[in-house]
Amino acid sequence: MSTLLGLSLVLALGVAPAVQQSNPRALVESGQYEAAVDAVATLEERGNVDPSLVFLAAGANERLNRTAQARRQFDQLAASPANSPWRFIGQSGLALLDNQRPNAVAAARRAAEMNPNLFEAHYQLAIALARTGQMGEAAAAFERATEVRPSDAYAHYQAGLAYSKIRRVDQMARHFETFLKLAPNAPERGAVQSIMRTVRGR
Length: 202
Hints:
By secondary structure, the chain is mostly helical. It has a single domain, classed as Alpha Horseshoe (Serine Threonine Protein Phosphatase 5, Tetratricopeptide repeat), CATH 1.25.40. It is 68% helix and 0% strand. It has 11 helices and no strands. 47% of the residues are buried.
């Protein structure tokens, strides 16, 4: 999600509840990245080409180190009409894959400006900023993403990571607490709980 960088590739153990089996977002939040990619592919085969799910699948493929597959999905987004923010989200994802970080930031920033209420635009911008080491701006962009979509677990997770880099422990703890509530089966849960125990012990 990139583009969801910094996330563990450890798969969650056990079988997801039946209600989650075809829900790509729930599958990602339980660490079942390959299943999430397959679920998106199934929806696309049925004619449900939702760019937000293409974006989700691209991030899942990156977590699986499937760069070629992620590139195809970002290419798909980049082929969106010129007046669509998805075009620039796709371009940003491609730029990150090519290690063209300033271009990735510029494209994602344009997407966020085109549609300030599009979660993925802010999320992609935050990822691109984090890759360039601009952690203060990245934290602010992740914060905006959580405001647009408060229920997205990994936006809170990434916000927590970004705030930890700039030593804002209060904000880090706030987002990590929310992440733990939203994604009880996430593979990062143990590491986040360990961090929170340290924070609470101060």
